[in-house]
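Task: complex structure prediction.
Instruction: return structure tokens for all chains below.
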Amino acid sequence: KAGVTQTPRYLIKTRGQQVTLSCSPISGHRSVSWYQQTPGQGLQFLFEYFSETQRNKGNFPGRFSGRQFSNSRSEMNVSTLELGDSALYLCASSSLAYEQYFGPGTRLTVT
Amino acid sequence: KNEVEQSPQNLTAQEGEFITINCSYSVGISALHWLQQHPGGGIVSLFMLSSGKKKHGRLIATINIQEKHSSLHITASHPRDSAVYICAVAGGSGSRLTFGEGTQLTVNP
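Output:
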């Protein structure tokens, strides 16, 4: 089986812009979770989607949003980018057994 | 106090040494994960535990639910084991993870 893929791998944006990141889970996995990793805050949970529904949400402002499509692919969107949004964004897919498989991440730099 | 505490934060070992990384948590969990992150960012899931002990090659993970504590052991450490090891706990719904700060392991030849 192919692993979790994330696109793009690297991205540079300017403050105030918006960005959309994509995650394709392992075939058959219906749950996709998103995480943000920064040097200061470490890894933090953003949200989880299961069967096109947001099942869990972390403590992030409303500028962070996501969605999941019927093929389980997921996107996350960050609007009105701030310098502090510079981070590695990771997605992970899981089956009903809850073991999580992480993608390679998208490294976002906001200038 | 963080919900997930790891120790030590940094660990330097000589090749061949036995290594232990500890994780304590303060909330009820459905599972505990040990993750490995190499420079460049990619995260690999090493173990998912809800009780007892698991072994994979030179890696062993244990969990004590009553004491809310888990350990990751590496036997016969090797320089390729150098990475950040992260403990993460899953709450009731299973997929939402809360992470420890990670342990930076360096194994010197």
